[in-house]
Description:
CATH topology of the largest domain: Tumour Suppressor Smad4
Strand content: 25-35%
Shape: elongated
Pfam family, one: YegS_C
Subcellular location: Vacuole membrane
InterPro entries: ATP-NAD_kinase_N, Diacylglycerol_kinase_cat_dom, Lipid_Phosphate_FormReg, NAD/diacylglycerol_kinase_sf, YegS/DAGK_C
Oligomer: single chain
CATH architecture of the largest domain: Sandwich
GO cellular component, one term: vacuolar membrane
Structural class: alpha+beta
Radius of gyration: 26 Å
Bound molecules: adenosine-5'-triphosphate
Distance between the termini: 36 Å
CATH class of the largest domain: Mainly Beta
Number of helices: 14
Membrane topology: Peripheral membrane protein
Amino acid sequence: MGRGSGVQGTTLSLTELIRVDGTSTEANFDVGVGKLRWRSGGERCLEVESEVLGFETQGTRITVKAFVGVLKALSCGKSNGKGMRRDFVLEMPNEECALLWSEKLRDLINSFGRPKRLFILLNPYGGKRCARKIFHNEVKPLLEASDILYTLQETNYQLHAQEIARKLELLKFDGIVCVSGDGVLVEVVNGLLQRDDWDTAIKVPLGIVPAGTGNGMAKSLLDAVGGVYSISNAVFAIIRGHKRSLDVTTVLQGEARFSSEKYRWMGSARLDFYCFLRVMSLRKYHGHVQFVPAPGYEVYGERAKQSEICKDGISEQVCRDDARYHQCGYTGPKTSLEDLEWRSIKGPFILVWLNNVPWSCEDVMPAPEAKFSDGYLDVVIIKDCPKSAFMSLLLKMKDGSHVKSPHVMYLKVKAFRLEPGQRVGSPSKGGIIDSDGEVIARGEGTYECHQQDLMAYGPPIHLTVDKGLATIFSPR
Length: 476
Ligand SMILES: Nc1ncnc2c1ncn2[C@@H]1O[C@H](COP(=O)(O)OP(=O)(O)OP(=O)(O)O)[C@@H](O)[C@H]1O
């Protein structure tokens, strides 16, 4: 039928004289390569996989719902790289033709394996408290254009997301999306790992729409493919349904345990507003770090004594037997840390910062070499540094160039042990250890808080990485 419908093997190419947005033109739908082409002023082309959300057919009219602009930026840099919603109305010569094109378009989109049902968690108090507005203005319209069904639930209190992820009926959904900062995503990971079925639960694809103050994961995911950081680009990445695996790091101190992406040990929980203060009164902390270096990073530190590593009994927890493992949720990676070669660096330290992804928030890249699933944590250690150089190092973290400084030690590790100490010159004062912006342990003389910290400041804290344990929606 039509002017040029042709089937060659499995490749189907449809050609018709149609109207696109009111202009008569010859259009071609090459199903094999997944492209719609027509002329309108010049040659126009829509790549279905990377530019089409969905479509609607009414009689002879097919409205193609597109998200355009992202590809152009990647190939020729002409657009600003933020995708935009755009409809293209194709008027076909007759209904039969409209049905055939619709059917082929539907089959093609279905073959991409995109998510059909999503569970969405929204933190109304994250960041600038805009998550509801972001959802209604930027997330909902794109999901609806893509025919994705969703269940929306707001988080009502701290750790609510963790509780929900622990109980959620996962079979009903193709993914869990957080409209929040990175903190809620980490809660979801922890909730999934607390389930009896944690080993299947943790494979549910997770998505993040940036709506917090710390949006390092969304920035890292987009930046890794040369994409521009924007809310709609992050939503489109989820809709397209590409996935990548993500390392999960477990933090252990005695019986206390949780999983996360970033850890920082310094005088404050937040780098941004505190850095000026830090520079004005640069503080150093005694302490001791030990680590299992990734291949190529063995030159840092000195060889550690095996007895020191195992004295806190962590290795027993890490090498637990499988029956217990399944009953009480995830307890950490299955690797034995005792057989590995540990190295050691003694303080004082100005800063110890561990990351699993390059960006800690939209404009700070402490770990430019970090990979989502290489099985290693990237560690930034600053031991000694004049005030002026420290200020410039913090500024250089905007583009990751701080790693070239002789004041910075940058290494990749498989496991890490931190023994935090007191402030140099103030033996009664400790520091703060934070993870994803949340304080997990604070020393004496930092500041009072009504909540009990998850961990104590002083006893060693162990971090171990489980390579590619979780799955996250990714732009490519
Ligand atoms: N309704 C709520 N009321 C209070 N806290 C909440 C609520 N919902 C979620 N939270 C908590 O808010 C914290 C931060 O959430 P999120 O990561 O979304 O935002 P953020 O602005 O990036 O956070 P942060 O300011 O810690 O960087 C989480 O620890 C979460 O438990």
